[in-house]
Amino acid sequence: MIYQSGHERFLERQTPQWLEQIRLRYQLPARFLLYVGSVIERKNLLQIVRALAMMPVADRLPLVIVGRGKAYLQQVIEYARSVRLDSLLYFPDPSHEDLPAIYQLADMLIYPSFCEGFGIPVLEALWSYTPVITSNVSSLPEAAGPHACLVDPASPEQIAEGIFRILSDEAYRQYITDEGYAYSRRFLPEVTAPQMMSLYEGICETGLEGHAL
After folding, report:
1. pLDDT value at position 102?
2. Strands across the sheet containing 132-135
3. What pLDDT digit, counting tens, does each position of 67-87 carry?
4. pLDDT for 19-71, tens place per residue?
5. Which of 130, 151, 189, 197 has the fewest CB atoms within 10 Å, i.e. the most exposed one?
């Protein structure tokens, strides 16, 4: 198995001064949960909002949503309004250059997708030294590693429990962050690029042998 890699800018630690500039630029709250990805049904943003609705008011953090959508996004917004959580939703439109800082500002990434080919936002969060809640289905356990907070994407209760545990248990938060970052090293370009090159070389050699006279 040769894995996908990500952009190396997510490995760069941003200075506190730059992080604060980004926070002010996009008017982000002091603490927040993060969702990154297209706002479509299979990526399951609505379950995060449902999870927040289940949590005590004192334990709720704002949810920063980086992604675009149409009908499903409107469904999410309407539900948030119906449970009086719309004021907790933030929709910045950051440049790709500023996105690593937003990961590093976040308390955690929540990515409860039902189906992914890999899950690049998960890798970006791990490289950013940000804890991850993601799904226990599809490719996501393999992308996030065994130490991530894995939940049933159909269960807002499990998502809420994961949020609460990461926010309230500092030892657990530190553990999954450290172990997630260590696991994510297997996806570094210097690991995956030689593997891909070796595959190409093997294919070329096989092809040449097949055409030998």
Report:
1. 98
2. 89-90, 63-66, 33-36, 108-111, 132-135, 149-151
3. 999 999 999 999 999 999 999
4. 999 999 999 999 999 999 999 999 999 999 999 999 999 999 999 999 999 99
5. 197
Q: What is the CATH number of the domain that holds 120?
A: 3.40.50.2000
Q: Is residue 3 part of a domain?
A: no
List C-alpha distances in Å: 194 to 110, 144, 191.
31, 22, 6
113: Cβ contacts below 8 Å, ≥ 6 apart: 37, 42, 43, 44, 119, 134, 135, 138, 140, 153
